[in-house]
Every structure is written in C-alpha cells, then in structure tokens.
Design brief:
Layout: E1 2-5, H1 6-11, H2 13-21, E2 26-30, E3 33-38, H3 49-57, H4 64-74, H5 77-81, H6 85-94
Parallel strand pairs: 1-2
Antiparallel strand pairs: 2-3
Length: 101
C-alpha cells in the first residue's frame, strides 16, 4: 500500500488510476493526515463453459405436471363462476381450449 498526498493524486491521477486498476491500493493524505483509501473494486470472475454447466446442474428440477395441476386447482373455474350456468357458458367460451392434443 502506498501513501500519497491529495496533490499527488490530483497531479498524477491517470498514473494513480492505472496502478489502482493493476491492483495497487493507495492511502490519500491531506495536511499529513490520512483521509481516504483508493483501492480496486473486486471483479466478478467470468465462469467458463464447464463451470456454467456444473452450476446449471445444481438447479432444482421442476415437476411441470404438478405445477400445472396446482395452477389449475388455484385458478379453477368453480371459484370464479359458481353455479350460474349462463356465467359458466360465457367464461368457458372466453377460455382457451385445455385440450392437450
């Protein structure tokens, strides 16, 4: 870690920033008192193809059939239209076909 004055930072900011980008940390002083620290931010490492595949394999598996059944139960027509046959016909006509074939 290097210690530099505020004046040095102002006069040589491009060179200081290049060094920070290269991993160097600086303590900045004003009137002989340390007032700040200038350091590089941690960079996120990019994952390679093998690491991405391994990470993907760790994701939980989704049971889409169970999820669909759960959604159908949650959004069933019975809860919305009740026993009114006219309302049932209107709603059923507006719904997309549930026929999987």
């Amino acid at each position: 870690m290097k210690v530099i004055t505020r004046q040095d930072l102002r006069d040589d900011s491009a060179a200081v920033m290049d060094q920070v980008e290269a991993g160097e940390t600086f303590r900045i002083t004003r009137n002989g008192v340390e007032v700040a620290e200038l350091r590089p931010l941690p960079r996120r490492r990019r994952l390679g193809a093998e690491e991405l595949v391994a990470k993907h394999r760790q994701l939980p598996r989704v049971d889409y059939a169970a999820m669909r059944h759960e959604a159908d139960d949650l959004f069933s027509d019975e809860d919305v239209i009740g026993d009114d046959p006219w309302e049932r016909r209107r709603v059923e006509a507006a719904l997309p076909s549930r026929d999987p074939g």
